[in-house]
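Field reference: "sequence" (input) and "structure" (output). Example, LRAT domain-containing protein:
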Amino acid sequence: MTGLVAASVVCGSAPEGREMGFLTNRVEMSEIQPGDHIYTYRAVFAYSHHGIYVGGSKVVHFTPRRNAGPSIGSLSDEYDPNFSTPSCPIFPDCGFRQPESGVVLTCLDCFLRKGALYRFDYGVTPPAFLAKVRGGSCTTAECDPPDVAVHRAMYLLQNGFGNYDVFQNNCEDFALYCKTGLIIVDRRGVGSSGQAASVIGVPFAALLSSPLKLLIPSPVGVATVTAGMYCMSRYATDIGVRTDVIKVAVEEIAKVDHIHEEGEET
């Protein structure tokens, strides 16, 4: 039992006595520990924003650069001017970032913006992963110790995480890398973000199931097949089962083409 509890603390899974929710993983501020991958929902649950809690009521997270254009996508904080120039009365360093970098340090309250707090789950079983109706809340991948996640986040705060891309290199990709050290090699598809996979998976599943309408007379049957395809597309893009991932030391991450600053502009 001791080993199970320790694993929960290390990998950010639900602690003993708390069951992993099917939709979300809501927690209280008193429950999170340095190195936890946390997230909150924006725009009435339209999308989630992810970061790494580094202790001291501070969060390191990844956002579009201040001068980034609208082409990087809308599932981000880019259209909120208050986020780009935060004014925190409690922490003078809230909002710190290096010039031309999207990695930012904020206090927990400014990260949440009065929203609820959730903790991302690692090392979940395939059935538990598929039971999550919405992507962006768990992964089958195992994570590294909390101090390693904090080190990666703080290193990237000083050195950047490349160009923000809503589908290939977003805030969830950043948090997943900090926790696992895994990077997607293939730039042609979706990144490691479960949230992005969900956005793409819905129309993809609907497209694939369209021909089945001629073979399955029942609308319920078509809906069931579509839902199954959606779940499987989410699972196939999970960083824990993909084969196009490599583990990269944070000091070497700028050499990876996927997030290289000199790579293709978004």
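DSSP finds eight helices and seven strands in the chain.
The chain has a mean pLDDT of 75.
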